[in-house]
Amino acid sequence: MKENGIEPDQRYPVTLAFLTKALKLAKADKDYAQLKDIYTEFKDVYSEQKDFTKAIFYANQYKQASDSLVKAERKKTAENLQIVYEAEKNEQKISQLNEALNAKASPRRRATEPREWLYFGMFAFLILGVGIYFFFSQPKWQFARDGLNNPSDEAEKSAESTAPPVTTTDLSRLFDKFQDKQSNHKKLPVSTSEGVLLLPIADIIRLEASGSYCTIHLTPHKKILASKPLAEFEPLLDKIDFFRIHKSHIVNIHCVERYIRGEGGMVVMNDGAEVSVSRTVKAELLEKLNIS
C-alpha cells in the first residue's frame, strides 16, 4: 500500500536522497543547528533499516556538529566581548582627554571667579527686589494679608468641586497606556546560530516550541529559530502582554484577532495562524481577552 504516494520499498531511498540534498545545503551554509537535525534523521533511518554501522557513524557526526555549534557560539560571544572592550577603552581615552583639557582651562576659570560672584550677587539682589514688589502689589496677596478671600481663589475651588472624580478605572487605563508605551521600547535578547539578536517585544506575535529550540514569529510574516527552549523565554516576557496558552505556545495577547470556542478552544492570530488552547488555561485566557 502506498504511503503519501510512495511505495513502501521506495520510502527509505526517497528519504535518504532528500536528506543528502539537505546535508549539502547545510554544510555549504555552515548551519550547524540544521546539521544536527539532519544527522539525527540519518541515524533514525539507518536504525530502522538495521544498518547500525551507519547509524553509529551519523550519531558521531551529530556529536561533532553539536561541538561545532558550541564553538561557533563561543567565538561569536568572544568577538562581541572584544567589541565591547574596545568601545569602553575608547571611552576611557576620551574621558582622560576631556579631563586634561579641563585641567588646562582651570587657571583661567579661577581668575574670573571674583567677577562671577559679583554678577551672581547682583542677580540675586534683583530677584529679591522683584519678589518683594509682587508680594505687596498683587491683589491676591492683599486679600490674604487682610484676612479676606480672593474671588479668583473662590472660582478655582468651585471649579474643582464640580470636576468629576477620578475613578480606579481611569487610573487603570492610564497605567495600561503607560505600560504599552514602555513595552514598545523593550527588546528581547535571542541567541541564534549567528549571534544574539535584540528583537523589539512589540513585534513578537507568538513563540512556538521546536524541541530544544524555539521559533519566534514576528511581524510582518518573519520568523527566527532561537537556540533556546520555549521555557527560557517565558520569564523574560511581560505576563500582561504575553500568555502561555499551550505547552508549545506563548502568544501576544494584543495580536489575538479571534477566539474559536471548543473544548479548549482556539485563537486566530493576526498573522493568520490558528493555535490550540489548553483546557487548563482556557478560563484565564478568556478573562484576559475580556470574553464572558
Write structural notes for this entry.
The chain has 292 residues and is an alpha+beta fold. The protein has two domains: 1-163, no CATH class; 180-288, OB fold (Dihydrolipoamide Acetyltransferase, E2P) (Beta Barrel). It has helices spanning 8-29, 32-48, 52-137, 139-145, 151-162, 168-183, 230-233, 282-288, and strands at 187-192, 195-200, 204-210, 213-218, 222-226, 242-246, 249-252, 256-260, 266-269, 274-276. The strands form three sheets. It has a five-stranded antiparallel sheet with strand order 5-4-3-7-6, with no helix packed on it. Strands 8-9-10 form a three-stranded antiparallel sheet, with no helix packed on it. Strand 4 (213-218) and strand 5 form a beta hairpin. Helix 2 (32-48) packs antiparallel against helix 3. It is flat. The chain starts with 7 loop residues before the first helix and ends with a helix. The mean pLDDT is 80.
